[in-house]
Design brief:
By secondary structure, the chain is of the alpha/beta class. It folds into two domains: about 160 residues, Aspartate Aminotransferase, domain 1, CATH 3.90.1150.10; about 230 residues, Aspartate Aminotransferase, domain 2 (3-Layer(aba) Sandwich). It contains 16 helices and 14 strands. It has a seven-stranded mixed β-sheet, with helices on both faces. The protein has a four-stranded mixed β-sheet with strand order 1-2-3-13. A three-stranded antiparallel β-sheet has the order 11-12-14. The protein is globular and about 60 Å long. It starts with 5 loop residues before the first helix and ends in a 13-residue tail after the last helix. Bound molecules: pyridoxal-5'-phosphate. Pyridoxal-5'-phosphate binds next to helix 5. Pyridoxal-5'-phosphate (PLP) binds next to helix 5.
Length: about 425
Amino acid sequence: MSLRYRRSEQMLERALRVIPLGSQTFSKSITALPFGVSPYFVQRAKGSRLWDVDGNEYIDFVNGLACVTLGYCDSNVDDAVRRQLDCGVTFSLPHQLETEVAELLVEMVPCAEKVRFAKNGTDATSGAIRVARACTGRERVAVCGYHGWQDWYIGSTSRHLGVPTAVKALTHPFRYNDIASLQRILDDHPGEFAAVILEPMTSEYPRDGFLQQVQESARRHGAVLVFDETITGFRFGPGGAQQEFGVIPDLATFGKGIANGYPLSALVGLARHMDAVEQVFFSGTFGGETLSLAAAKAVLTKLRTEPVIETLKTRGQTILDGVGGIISDAGVDRIIAISGHPSWSFLHFRDAAGFSRWQIKTFFLQEVFRRGIYTLGTHNLSYAHTDQDVEALLACYRQVFPLIGEAVDDGSLDDRLECQPLVPLFTPR
Ligand SMILES: Cc1ncc(COP(=O)(O)O)c(C=O)c1O
């Protein structure tokens, strides 16, 4: 049992008796957090800071897996939620907040003419696929990126246990920035694709008009184009990545940062597709839950009245530039790279000198957690991060990256690991 994470580890032992993996979310579980060098349970969080149950303080660059875009306990959001709490949460009739937040989305998001709310990103992406299938009378879908835990998507990944073969056969992955990989699958099954769904960007910028080419291919094949903006929405721009990159899909899905950590997602799109939602069954008890809608209204209002997106970009750019410099100063270019959008950047670990990227990443996590930085290898910026937070991240990397270089070069990485390395994880991106 480690001294620093004692209470976390005790709580984990207890949780594992009643909760598979000890967590409701894969990326917050022992699969992602090496045992012995990681915190497992949070006590509280505020702004950019998170405290674990052992009292260790972190600057959080995970931010609830990128759902906390304004920072923890944002006062505008939480005040709106408190006011709504006094009036009730979920009712026996629709509440006007549903219309108000839908109107905001229609004003802000280029493709949004109509809106359906749900709770998880997966609800929205699954709704999009059902709508696309209903509108086209076709069944196949082309996917690129991560789209949630439902059969239609997860069946195409290495975590497909429990998904019927017949469902798996309908989902065809293609590669980002590789238009030929999409064209091939569309051409192999002419007239059979209902939808092309992709994250408009993850760790690489679209190259050579990739998004425009995807749009043209989808149109040519009569497939509905869906942008999964669960992360990019309200992070890349007030109207999402579609606005940033100037490619307007038929449907788009939002989640995560739409309500700063309150559970809300949305399927939006052109009326000619969204009107199908009157016939398709996409309905849930909590779709109109008002605490999350009140939170979303406060988030969207703040995005329009304060320089949230600009601030994420400026601070994030400092990280991209700073980390790039630290990588070359430490001479670890062959082991570590950074890429992505300033508001959501990714470290990439490579196999080196006989060590796997999973061993190297485990060592990285061990060293950053102990220095009070919470990242899983991405920098999911929030509006609450300050210049000092960014400097603290860079200062931590200035110590840790040379250590990684040394441990790889002198072959001591295994000896320096105070835990078992992570086993290779499901990496859909
Ligand atoms: C791009 C994308 N789509 C869909 C999802 C699924 O969202 P949720 O986990 O809220 O169901 C995620 C979650 O990480 C995501 O990143």
